Amino acid sequence: MIEAALRSGRAHRECVFEVFGRRLPGDRRYGVLAGTGRVLEAIGRFRFGAAELDWLSQQRVVDDATLAFLADYRFTGSIEGYREGELYFPGSPLMTVRGSFAEAVVLETVILSILNADSAVATAAARMVSAADCRSIAEMGSRRTGEASAVSSARAAYIAGFSATSNLEAGRRWGIPTMGTAAHAFTLLHDSEEEAFRAQVDSLGPGTTLLVDTYDVRRGVETAVRVAGPELGAVRLDSGDLPTLVREVRAQLDELGATQTRITVTNDLDEHSIAALRGAPVDSFGVGTAVVTGAGAPAAGFVYKLVARREQGSSGDWTPVAKASSGKVGRGGTKRGARLIGADGIARAEHVIIDDDHDGMPEAGFTGIEPRALTVPLMIDGEPDPAALGAAGVRAAREHRASAIAELPPEAFRLGRGEPVLPTVYR
Amino acid sequence: MIEAALRSGRAHRECVFEVFGRRLPGDRRYGVLAGTGRVLEAIGRFRFGAAELDWLSQQRVVDDATLAFLADYRFTGSIEGYREGELYFPGSPLMTVRGSFAEAVVLETVILSILNADSAVATAAARMVSAADCRSIAEMGSRRTGEASAVSSARAAYIAGFSATSNLEAGRRWGIPTMGTAAHAFTLLHDSEEEAFRAQVDSLGPGTTLLVDTYDVRRGVETAVRVAGPELGAVRLDSGDLPTLVREVRAQLDELGATQTRITVTNDLDEHSIAALRGAPVDSFGVGTAVVTGAGAPAAGFVYKLVARREQGSSGDWTPVAKASSGKVGRGGTKRGARLIGADGIARAEHVIIDDDHDGMPEAGFTGIEPRALTVPLMIDGEPDPAALGAAGVRAAREHRASAIAELPPEAFRLGRGEPVLPTVYR
User: Fold this and answer.
1) Cα angle value B78/B84/B86 (rounded, 5°)
2) Nearest chain A CA: its distance from B81 CA (Å)
3) Region (Disordered): which ranges (chains A, B) (predicted)?
4) Which residues of A are less than 8 Å from B195 in CB distance?
5) CB distance B178–A324 less than 8 Å?
6) A112, A169, A239 ranked by CB distance to B326: nearest
7) Residue A321 near residue A301 (C-beta atoms within 8 A)
8) What is the rounded distance in angstroms from the CA atom of residue B260 to the CA atom of residue B223?
9) What are the backbone dihedrals phi and psi of residue B339, each rounded to the nearest 5 degrees, phi first?
């Protein structure tokens, strides 16, 4: 596309691209945007090095003019959009990228890869957090997604309200609290369960979490309390019929005097099995596969569409553009979002305001119910908002998600499939 | 686990870990193993650098003895397992890792991350390849999975029989054939569809593929043939009711004399929509979301379990070990796989041979039907099999997959949910 546009003289035409989703993944009630900070960082690093240019040249993928363009590539445009951690609905204008066609179109894959993957995880994770009903929930799914996605999934789950991750690299890179567990392999390494528990308590103290279901849970709990004493931090259960088993283990721990010992459960949990443990004496959850794979919706389904182009002649007018044939019809024009919040603090609607003035920000202009502006500057002339980056950006996104969730009506937290909890209104 | 095992004196106990899946993802008939070459490369690079060690130390994640172990870490053990591209069934011993507990347990996450993600993609992709019925099929899903998984998904899909990818980095890194398409944005950038088509044909020649569904398909096809002539390479359709639309477009192309112009379709295709186009005049398919997300099963569900440990005393005996409590009961002991092939060349069963001699390779010892040995050496004393690495490894895996698929009975290619097409027999 860039090669052909360079030849046709359209490559440097000013353009506006928009990221949005046509529907919510998995017929859910709301989505959680994640990945924005990673996108801004990735755009800053987006360069074509000698190895890439040599390969493109050797393979004749593009011509020399395009190679020269790529060799000098650096995004100098501007981006506005929803804050990371913001909630979204069908049609929400999540990211608006302004730049020349060539400099903006080349970012499509990296922007969508990050936002689709991270938002799928965050959207699934937020449902698990509400199902967990204020009990802590740790992300432990690194082994069930690609080795780089493992790190970014831990980040997305934390933004969505998870309390910790077992992925140490996510801790190092993003400042996310980390935790660890012992696997069955640790118990099986030793000549007996007692030897394994003793090794763990000797090393990590009685406040550690002992995995008690390698052989027989009842004997495992008894051995755990005998070895660690009633100060034992927690026991972990990773198999069996959890609602029943958890009650039995709680009763046994209490009988043994380990009344402060917590129970943590794992075992292919998802939002539904977590909700089914609502009445059970579980203190914390560890979730793996379901959270890192988006619990049935592993990609958020966002697209990156050209919505406006500027005349190259003297007029400089903007033309809204959109695909017009059957299916997947788009809405042209630059947009911004506003969430209408009632006097009770509860959101009523998602407004998407289509603007004719593509250079500036459209004005909301509401009366009555208070609009909360959702579109903020993220990158100006190639310079990202520093507050959106790194560990500070992750913390800000997590806090913003919490405040945005607090605006949702109670129906938002129903786990069944259904309609978005807020209607999208185009203005 | 390593810290506690270093203190208990068990960290250097010789161990055997095994990678296997308890069931096939999505109730499919067979699985396709992918990621083996990437695992071997990742293990070769698996080191703890100064940045990681400093963080682990500052955060007091582990003690000084463990930090020293990690600083010197280099895997020196051995691995055997199924070739990349091999098919698998429940219980197939896909990878057997031999080493000290500490050096083998630390690899769990990286091994499982890669194999679970890549095999999920390959297993889904193989079904699409058979549904495409010898027509070519390109992987175009980079934007619907994490930015690093995008590259490895292209690799896994190619091993499973896809013909090309739109991911240029996969071409550069793994030698996979690449292709590109023009997006609707390219058409919308220009003042008219005709201007866009002319720009593309000027740059890429009439053999290019023109996207004809931005405005009106019938007019788009007419314009495409007018601009490129009857030598037009292909038209792409990305929306609409494809089985009907494809027939109409074929008839229109033939009327216009463009009888050699091919039709390529995209639009959220999966194995079922590809199969539904079996009778339609489609020449090639482009698949995005479904293939990179494993078409409903984004993680293969493999686990990494300790199956044997060696006595540290003078006897040096091996003890098979496995989790024994309710649910997820394992089978201890080192294993190897063999596929029983009938005189007609068709596979009959997957044999998993459990061996008592954990140092060597168990012998199959079959009579009658010919067994094909599935377990081969992959890494010896930390040195990987060079034939399994890089672009050559990818080519070998793709060829091996083709020969292994040719052994399957026809029921293997039914798309509905069902039982594995071969029974797993433990010996």
Assistant:
1) 115
2) 19
3) 315-334
4) 8
5) no
6) A239
7) no
8) 17
9) -105, 125
Nearest CA-CA partner of B32 in B294, B341, B343, B357: B294
Please state the φ and ψ torsions of residue A351, each to the nearest 5 degrees. -100, 135
A129 and A160 Cβ atoms separated by less than 8 Å:
yes
Residue numbers of A between 354 and 413 with CB closer than 8 Å to B:
none
Q: Which tokens is B89 given?
A: 């069934």
- Give the DSSP H or E segment for A64: helix A64-71
CA A177 to centroid of chain Cα atoms: 16
Cβ contact A68:A61 at 8 Å: no
**Domains in chain A, start-ordered, CATH in brackets?**
12-46+76-118+301-393+407-426 (3.20.140.10), 182-265 (3.20.20.70)
Angle (CA) B266 B272 B276, round 5°: 75
Q: Is A55 on the interface with B (CB under 8 A)?
A: yes
Query: How many residues would you count in chain A?
Result: 427
Among all residues of chain B, which has the CA nearest to that of A53? B172
CA distance to partner chain A, nearest, from residue B277 (Å): 18
Q: What is the ipTM of this complex?
A: 0.96
Three-state SS sequence of B87-123:
EECCCCCCEEEEEEHHHHHCCHHHHHHHHHHHHHHHH
Please write the tens of the pLDDT for every residue from B357-386: 655 554 555 555 789 999 999 999 999 999
In B123-252, where do the E strands start and end? 136-139, 164-165, 209-211, 234-237
State pLDDT tens for residues A107-130: 999 999 999 999 999 999 999 999
Set of chain A residues whose Cβ sits within 8 Å of the Cβ of B309: 188-189
The token pair at B261 is 């112009």
Which pTM value belongs to this model? 0.96
Share of chain A above pLDDT 90, in %: 91
